[in-house]
Amino acid sequence: MKILGFGGPGFLHDPAAAIIIDGKVVAAAEEERFIREKHAVGKPCLKSIEFCLKQAALSAKDIDAVAFPWSFEAFNKKKWAYAAKTLFSEPSRAYKAIAKAARQSAGTKRSVAGILEHFGIKVPPEKIFFVEHHLSHAASAYLLSGYEEAAIMSIDGSGEFTSTLFAEGRGGKITKIKEIDIPDSLGRFYSTMTAYLGFDPNDGEYKLMGMAPYGDPSKIDLSDIIQCDGKDFKTNPEYVWPIRSRRYVKDAMIPKKLIRRFGPPRKGDGLEEPYIHIAAATQKIFEDTVIRLMENHLGDVLRRTGNLTYAGGCGLNVSLNRKLVENPLVKNIFVQPASHDAGTPLGSGLFAAASLGDKIEPMRNVYLGPSYSNSEIEEVLKRADVSYKKSADIEDEVSILLTEGMVVGWFQGRMEFGPRALGNRSILGNPTIPGTSDRINGMVKFREKWRPFCPSILREHAKEIIGRDMDAPFMTLSFSVTREWKHRIPEVVHVDGTMRPQTVSHADNPRFYRLLKHFFGHAGVPVLINTSLNRRGEPMACSPEDAVKMYLGSGLDHLAIGDFLVTRR
To answer: Per CATH, the architecture of 374-567 is what?
Structure first.
């Protein structure tokens, strides 16, 4: 079966598309990369679908089924329960849930129909799958994990009216165990605190997570904002995702009560009290709540299988994921690399494929986007009038530059799907040279100097560095660094002694593996700083034009693009 999954037309952030052929994901990409607008809020996924069709060498008539990560049935079923739940605390939202439901559903149907018409895709109604948002997240994790049986978590802000799903996967089928609906939402709680701490919701949550280790959670009590009994949790509507009358300013999700309690919202890029303690307390209560819920609802499945799969926007919280790895119930874990909403088109397509009888091939890598030939790249370099040369051995030449302390942009092969640079659209640096991270933050990425960077590690050296002999190819997990290596590679160790690594094997990325091997030979360490090839506020580079523009507008020393090395004049 040839299945197109797409999502986001008209009303969601992070639109994306994916194509699955006979159970194998052959292409997936986010719209933001093509239109160069971070998160592509409210934009149709035209460029991403166009790319996926081209990459898969398919025409519109070749598509057997389509899938969209939104269920009108679930939406209409749950709107009444949501209205009843919020009638007294948030009556305006209760009213809107009912009054606007028909219009929202009709608008979504028109958007989906418009996308199909635009591409000339015609499939029978029974081959159009409208998959629940959280089932799409769940499918993106479980069906690609390779586990026959597994516990499943999906946690984010909301989808339809659900914020949290616990489920069991067995034999390619997903069975729900427990759903928790909005207004109770861990994702919305975390996003509200993200806004208060001066970051953009749906974008800056990872900054809150990075700030948390600088604070002391015992100094801030948030127990009245989230209350969890192990089976369920409640969020306080006066503090979480407030209605307009409860906001500090109309257009920001910052509650007045939070201002009265802790003072004005944080501003600037520094680390100040009490904000670092608020970040720490936010992270801790979030972690504690998820783990209690997981142990309660998924304990039986985990005791039987040991396998946990996880997606939803909260799946990108690697500090929580470290606690999951360390939990005695969890023997194996798979976190979907595109856990955010861009992963739901992939998940809905996989759900449709499994429903139609396809056996899903496990995910080994996320190099699912566009690639460019040397001739295409050189045409761009000529037009840009930059100084470049063709290298006889780009991996070795770049490894020498990195050993000498240079910061190098690395543009190779197919673009990654998901938010993490995994060796094809990366900025690389030497983790042994003090100040390298500060230099990348200040002169290349133009972001907060306290933000940590991730390492890429040769897979065969993982145990000596992170203390575990396990694959971590997607930067979705974090680990405590072993004592010896904390001091050898300080530029990729966070203030709490942890790192979020990518383990690199030759099978998954031969060219990046060779680069790391050469660097190990020259520098004596099997680790590189690896961050995404973009500047603050921009999507990751997709095309050679994006990479050259980023290079010229930043402090990168060199750009290795295909077999070419670009240098400053």
So the answer is: Alpha-Beta Complex (3.90)
Structure tokens given for 57: 């060498």
* Sequence-separated (6 or more) residues with CB below 8 Å from residue 354: 139, 143, 172, 173, 360
| Residue 178 CB-half CA count within 13 A | 17
Query: For residue range 76-97, what is the model confidence (pLDDT) as tens digits?
Result: 999 999 999 999 888 889 988 8
**The dihedral formed by the CA atoms of 162, 164, 166 and 169, expressed in degrees to the nearest 10:** 70
Please give the positions annotated as active site: 13
AA letter at 134: H
Please, what sign has the CA dihedral across residues 181, 184, 186, 190? Answer: positive
Averaged pLDDT score across all residues of the chain: 95
For the entire predicted model, the pTM comes to 0.96
Tell me if 129 sits within 8 A of 355, measured CB to CB: yes
Q: How far apart are CA 473 and CA 459, in angstroms?
A: 9
DSSP 61: G
- What six digits make up the tokens of 174? 């997903």
446-492 residue pLDDT tens = 777 788 899 999 999 999 999 999 999 999 999 999 999 999 999 99
Q: What is the pLDDT of residue 11?
A: 52
**CA angle centred on 64, ends 62 and 66, rounded to 5°:** 115
DSSP letters of 478-522? -EEPPHHHHHHSGGG--TTSEE--EEE-TTT-HHHHHHHHHHHHH
Phi-psi region of 172 (alpha: psi -120 to 50; beta: other; left: phi over 0): left
Q: How far apart are CA 421 and CA 120, in angstroms?
A: 34
Helix, strand, coil distribution of the chain in percent, nearest 5: 45, 20, 35
* Residue 423 reports pLDDT greater than 70: yes
Which tens digits make up the pLDDT trace of 173-232?
999 999 999 999 999 999 999 999 999 988 899 999 999 999 999 999 999 999 999 999
What band does 9 get if pLDDT is binned at 50, 70 and 90? low
Q: Which sign does the torsion angle of CA 248, 250, 255, 257 carry? A: positive
The answer to whether domain 2-138+339-355 and domain 374-567 are alike in fold is no
**By C-alpha distance, which of 70, 79, 133 is closest to 107?**
70
Q: Parse the chain into domains and list their residue ranges.
A: 2-138+339-355, 186-332, 374-567
Angle (CA) 490 495 496, round 5°: 115
Question: Are the C-beta atoms of residues 275 and 263 closer than 8 Å to each other?
Answer: no
Architecture per CATH, domain 186-332, reads as 2-Layer Sandwich (3.30)
> Average pLDDT, stretch 12-40?
96
Domain 2-138+339-355: CATH architecture, name and number where available: 2-Layer Sandwich (3.30)
Query: Could you tell me the two tokens for 220?
Result: 């801030």
Measuring CA to CA, which residue among 145, 128, 162, 73 is closest to residue 348? 128
* Contacts for 30 with CB less than 8 Å, ≥ 6 apart: 14, 15, 16, 40, 48, 342, 417, 539
